[in-house]
Amino acid sequence: MKRERKREIWDFEHELPEGGGGGQKLILGLDGGATNTICICMPVIPFTLNHSPPVYARAVAGCSNHNSVGETAARETLEQVMAEALSKSRCSRSAVRAVCLAVAGVNHPTDQQRILDWLSDIFPNDVEYFVENDAVAALASGTMGKLHGCVLIAGTGTIAYGYTEDGREARASGAGPILGDWGSGYGIAAKALTAVIRAYDGRGSETMLTNTILHELQLSSPDELIGWTYADPSWARIATLVPIVVSCAEVGDQVANDILLHAVQELASSVKAVVHRLGLCGKDGKDTFPLVMVGNVLEASSGWDIGKEVISCIAKDFPGTHLVRPKVEPAVGAALLAWNYLIEQYQHELSGVGYD
Known about the structure:
Helix content: 40-55%
Structural class: alpha/beta
Order of helices and strands: HEEEHHEHEHEEEHHHHHHEHEH
Shape: globular
Strand content: 15-25%
CATH topology of the largest domain: Nucleotidyltransferase, domain 5
Number of strands: 10
Largest sheet: 5 strands, mixed
Distance between the termini: 58 Å
CATH class of the largest domain: Alpha Beta
CATH superfamily of the largest domain: ATPase, nucleotide binding domain
């Protein structure tokens, strides 16, 4: 059944002209998070990094974090989204020069190796592979493929990741909701649901989160939240309640406000931990370093701006923090990582050519 599924995914290649890409070589860049997986296809051609690179096709699928949906479902999603991107480009796997998968849940070399082994069964032998955590692609999206600085992702999940110019790296958070990613969308929404239950049974303060969440979910009593929550406790589903928490905080609800303040402290502490460990701030704590911020939790709101509050908190300790809002999406950042490697490899080969 599994092999049949794979054949169906790649059936479009039989309809392409011989060569499957007209001699053009491509890079696949993939960003896989807890909610969506995005794959883009771009050519291996020179371009100016001051401008967005050319993107031939873009495909979107669901979650590809194996910790959330399981390894089989994650692989099926990854393969499907790569096939769709190539199909939209009217190119086959033979046109692929490099693949960079940046996926949430890649936390250990064994995670990387499993995916590398799997990719080698899909693509031709001459393809270069890069497998990273999704935070690496997010950083590259702000630095146009250069791995230096720190990135903070806060969407359904959260992670802080940093790189130095000499290749050292560090991370904080990103271990999932059970292990305390409280600044994430899931963490914020879970605290809001908990606050509603606590207010209902008398352990916590009254909050407008109760009526607002019940109205949004079309429930009549906090008792019904128990059934709603455990009917499908997926991280992304719970995280959709974040805008309600923000709206309640904006009109003065203290419980909602405290939840967001706690999230700010958690997110800022993750960045501070990475910066300290890597020394990105220099010996005096004042050196400039880029901080790339990605994720819908960090997007500006008219009233309660979580991202702005996080930056303010970090800048108190590290005044050299340089905020970067990416001009390209993380999937493009993943492709740029591979593109930079190929360009460096090509230049190295040229420099090694001798002339008589």
